[in-house]
Amino acid sequence: MTSAPLKGSDRIAAGPLADGTGTAPSVRPSRPRRRGHSAPYWFLVPTLSLFAAFTVIPIGYAIWLSLHKVKVKGIGLGKGAREQVWNGLGNYTDVFQDSEFGHSVLRAFGYGLIVIPTMLGLALLFALMLDTPKARSAPLARLMIFLPYGVPGIIAALMWGFLYLPDVSPFYYLLDKFGLPQPDLFDGGNLYLSFANIAVWGGTGFNMIVIYTALRAIPPDIYEAARIDGASDLHIALKIKIPIVMPSLVLTFFFSVIATLQVFTEPMALKPLTNNLQSTWSPLMAIYDSAFLKSDIYGAAATTVVLAIATFVLSFTLLRISDRYTGEDRA
């Protein structure tokens, strides 16, 4: 019986035969040549290019602007009258000394204290209700709850803004017919409720879908075992469903915190409808006011960098706290 011929790329080593009378060749296949090992990286070039063009470069340019200022010579007219010079951390010092920006951050936190618990609570409640076996018309209900999220933010803000106006709102007409008080939703603390209502109406559906998707991934055998042990739907929801979907709740919580610090559409759209809304009501409105109304793009860039760092630090801190909490639960 003849053996197959060896390839030239194979290495042959001698080894003793079973009877010890001689040696037999042993074949060691050579390593395959690494051809085209850099090909996968070429597929990343378009994505990395877009990421650099629209994310890395703008961030770097904003940081560069935040370290400069304009030096005006004379009355500021004529060629060369305005010169861009190095300012170091001067713009950042002005940001921390700006009381308007500090008040806008406090207003954003107050807005978040209303929006985040309400929105996530409703999203969790709707997801749990749709996940029960007794839920009827669940696909239609999911669509109706998610539908407001598909409405652009500016359109939703304008729609609710006109519903808040006493002269055109049907709600005020009904309140007047029944002799009930008509609150001014553009005055004082009611502004927080007005903005929060728009955010909750538009964001609950998205968070509900995230939580509901996590609920659908739970094996049904767990529920059947719990029902055999005598657990009710309420106990299953509290003891099984909510703990299992906790990572999804943490994810939606992080998204909500970031969206709260970046609230801009609602107050900016409702500002023309009332005189009680400051142009620096939220942090992003303060940045917009500084950049486009006061023409201070260098101060606005510094404020943007401060807000981005604060958002990152807050998100990272909350993530570490949640990881420690969930880690202790698993232990």
What's this model, at a glance?
The chain is mainly alpha-helical and 331 residues long. It is built from 14 helices and four strands.
Describe the protein.
- The chain is mainly α.
- Helices cover 64% and strands 7% of the residues.
- It is built from 14 helices and four strands.
- The chain has helices at residues 39-43, 45-66, 90-97, 99-130, 138-146, 153-164, 170-177, 190-216, 220-228, 233-244, 246-261, 265-270, 283-293, 297-330, and strands at residues 11-16, 23-28, 68-72, 82-86.
- It has a two-stranded antiparallel ribbon.
- A hairpin with a 6-residue loop joins strand 1 and strand 2.
- Helix 3 (90-97) packs across helix 14 (297-330) and helix 4 (99-130) packs across helix 8.
- The chain is globular.
- Mean pLDDT is 85; it is low at 6-14.
